[in-house]
Design a protein that fits this description.
By secondary structure, the protein is an alpha/beta fold. Helix content is about 30%, strand content about 15%. The protein has a single domain (about 5-180), classed as Aconitase, domain 4 (Alpha-Beta Barrel). The longest helix has 15 residues, at about 185-195.
Amino acid sequence: MHPFTKHAGVVAALDRVNVDTDQMIPKQFCKLLTREGYGRLLFYDWRYLDGEKPNPDFPLNRPRYRGASVLLTRANFACGSSREHAVWGVLDYGFRVVIAPSFGDIFYNNCFKNGVLPVALADAEVDELFRRAEREGYRLSVDLEKQTVADDGGLRFEFQIDPARKESLLKGLDEIGLSLQHANEITAYEKKRQPRAEMHDPAGVDLTAATPR
């Protein structure tokens, strides 16, 4: 997982509430063998007409949002099913930051496992960002260490984040990476318990405590 410290990029505005993970990555695509390739499938039914022809009415297909890496959206973003594919699609598309008033809990948790920063701001702050995002090439800078969102026009919002999750993103550590930080302790524990474990049968019965009939 790539560390996240600061990120600056063009903002793509998706002015919709209650965007569902089933709509982000439809169920028929939840079968790829790797995490790559989901960017093309993100918002598939909204994004394409028949034959995967780009739908000109879908916001992310606007030329002004080409190359955007900050997604601005509305409340309860990525609600619905637990599919992690939704985060994979967001990341593979090119977004490193998602800003919204609120998120689906599972999606929010999955972001931190994949190097995407979900930023929750107040409704009024999100409204202001949507107003500013109407400008061509509107950009935001997001600083995880300072927990701020800012633009070149003097706007600056602060956001809250769990300290442990913040540290994991700063170091680029997913759950496996966090566990491997304790590899020496895990190895020492396994070596310590191995002789005792050998005294147990496969059913977990402690043979040292068994008494003959």
